[in-house]
């Protein structure tokens, strides 16, 4: 309380600034991933940025409680396991203005309907690109050293390698190799950047990129057949679309030079599995496969037992403590939305069909 002889306190510009707006936000994802996506520090920022209603996660959009949440919702903060944001869900969310996805692709749960209603869409795919690109670089380095087949041989024989083991390969090591990057996606671009740490020439194929843009990434743009035929390593970073199905078919796999390495951390259907199996079984090429078609491969599939194939269980993307990057990016996007500034990682309708 101020006494009568105290001078009044004049309002300053800071005092006049309204408190930050906290948009009403609903979390829609599998409850089992929430703590990983939003570790304590990120969760604290989230709660400062948004009015989370209800405080628990919504895993469906049909129950009375979910309908009530959607009715007041301005932002859907989604993640792995989000139910479909279809016309019915959108009809229940008349105030919805943004869908911010704390994971990679939005195509598994969101379609054109959201864009038709003027809803802004954002994705944390850029954050997920970081561990995938790191995994890819490691696969290229280890694969170029023939670490995987030589390790299998070492484990089987329990004796040190011989010079003959190395001489069986057409080349060994990363010095001066040519790496062909298929797809100038977020991951493909980051892989290209990381390849600058190697003494390697980088070729890039993407129908949506020009020579100048490829040059800025430190790569030389080329057509796919030339890339496949002249690269020591071919690494795939294209989306899975009808146009990219079996992008590497029997003919293009046949163009790969003997001893070449194929790395696939994108999607299994980009490669014709039957044709790939033939080329790997012959020993012509090596492969590191984080994804396959089908996934997983049947128990008796020959790729499981080939010494020149290293198969991992779709783990290149964010795992463990890496997952918090996705939540942090999503909260950053939510803060931008609350301030009324453009989203930094918007997913545009015109790009929806050709992105992962």
Automatic annotation (TrEMBL):
InterPro entries: D-isomer_2-hydroxyacid_DH (IPR050223), D-isomer_2_OHA_DH_cat_dom (IPR006139), D-isomer_DH_CS (IPR029753), D-isomer_DH_NAD-bd (IPR006140), NAD(P)-bd_dom_sf (IPR036291). Residues 1-24 are annotated as: Disordered. SUPFAM superfamilies: Formate/glycerate dehydrogenase catalytic domain-like (SSF52283), NAD(P)-binding Rossmann-fold domains (SSF51735). Signal peptide: none annotated. PROSITE patterns: D_2_HYDROXYACID_DH_2, D_2_HYDROXYACID_DH_3. Residues 157-316 form the D-isomer specific 2-hydroxyacid dehydrogenase NAD-binding domain. Transmembrane segments: none annotated. This is Hydroxyacid dehydrogenase. The lineage of its organism: Bacteria, Bacillati, Actinomycetota, Actinomycetes, Kitasatosporales.
């Amino acid at each position: 309380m101020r006494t009568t002889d105290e001078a009044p306190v004049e309002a300053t510009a800071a005092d006049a600034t309204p408190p930050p707006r906290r948009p009403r936000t609903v979390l829609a994802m599998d409850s089992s991933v929430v703590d990983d996506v939003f570790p304590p520090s990120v969760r604290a920022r989230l709660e400062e940025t948004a009015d989370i209603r209800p405080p628990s996660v919504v895993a469906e959009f049909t129950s009375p409680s979910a309908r009530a949440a959607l009715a007041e919702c301005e932002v859907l903060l989604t993640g792995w396991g989000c139910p479909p944001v279809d016309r019915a869900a959108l009809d229940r969310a008349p105030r919805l203005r943004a869908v911010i996805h704390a994971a990679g692709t939005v195509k598994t749960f969101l379609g054109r309907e959201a864009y038709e209603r003027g809803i802004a869409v954002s994705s944390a795919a850029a954050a997920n690109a970081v561990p995938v690109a790191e995994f890819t670089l490691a696969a290229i380095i280890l694969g170029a050293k023939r670490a995987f087949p030589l390790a299998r041989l070492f484990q089987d024989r329990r004796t040190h390698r011989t010079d003959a083991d190395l001489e069986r390969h057409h080349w060994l090591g990363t010095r001066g190799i040519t790496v062909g990057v298929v797809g100038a996606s977020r991951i493909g671009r980051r892989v290209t950047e990381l390849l600058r740490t190697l003494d390697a020439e980088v070729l890039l194929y993407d129908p949506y990129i020009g020579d100048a843009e490829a040059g800025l990434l430190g790569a030389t743009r080329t057509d796919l057949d030339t890339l496949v035929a002249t690269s020591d390593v071919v690494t795939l970073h294209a989306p899975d679309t009808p146009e990219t199905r079996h992008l590497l078919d029997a003919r293009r796999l046949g163009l790969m030079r003997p001893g070449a390495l194929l790395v696939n951390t994108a999607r299994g259907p980009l490669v014709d599995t039957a044709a790939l199996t033939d080329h790997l079984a012959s020993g012509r090429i090596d492969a590191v496969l984080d994804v396959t078609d089908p996934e997983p491969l049947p128990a008796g599939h020959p790729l499981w037992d080939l010494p020149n194939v290293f198969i991992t269980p779709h783990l290149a993307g964010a795992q463990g403590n890496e997952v918090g990057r996705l939540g942090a990016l999503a909260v950053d996007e939510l803060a931008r939305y609350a301030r009324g500034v453009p989203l930094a990682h918007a997913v545009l309708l015109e790009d929806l069909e050709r992105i992962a």
